Give the backbone structure.
Amino acid sequence: MTRQATDDSRPRAGADATGRAAPDGHTADEAARFGSSPFYIAFARALRQRGMRPELLCEPADPCARRLLAEYGAMFVADRSVAVPPVCVFQNEDEVSRFQRQAGSRAADFDGVKVELQPAVLDALLAAREDARREGLDITPRGGAEAARRDFADTVRLWESRVRPALAHWLEAGRVSAEDAERIGSLASGEQVARILELESCGCFFSKDFSKSILQSVAAPGASQHLALLAFDVVEFTDARVRSILARHGWFQTVRSDLPHFTYLGVREEELPGLGLRLAYHGEHVFWVPDLGDEGD
Ligand SMILES: [Zn+2]
């Protein structure tokens, strides 16, 4: 089963060639705004094909917006059988519920836990679960109903659950002043995200154990793929056979180091390089993350 993941990733060279051919469709304006990395080209192309305008979705001149797109942006190149958000970051509950209504959703009962996703996304998950069960395995939600659909308030609450302890930690460590901690705590969410990323660039990390970026621990308010009804957190993520079954049904790990988190892209694994995604390794786990070319790490 692990072998399949390796086999599927092999046609990368061919897909790179596809990526190179793509600049034809990349307008000069988009190249000037977003740059010409494989991901930005695929992102702009995917949105244009949906009749959306990439420059309205994300302000590429804003380093914070670019960073959020780099961390969570894989969902925007998903198959057109599903809807993608009209913004990189939802600003409030109204925007989220409007999108979720338009995208449509369906729920299934996973042993007493409600799992609610876009209809095509749920179908793919249920099909994967059936396959898993046929092999004596299972695919179950991690953390209750929050494993699938979330609302804006959920993302704010989860974000704050990291921010508050980290501010206390860095205050205690003498790396943040009491005034600064207080001020950061009361900033509006967009400004707070930007300020925390600044602190992280100086080594004050805000993840649960303060060892890595908060963005690899919890999504910024309004930026979670769970708001898009395209993500599912899986209990059995350590089982390579389960990951391989999910991949066969279009589910991939796309948020670096968020191990239980899977994103529905609805395509075959060998298509991912052509969608501007590249492999990133984390131990035995394989993440498909936006390929930012020189801009990436
Ligand atoms: Zn998740």
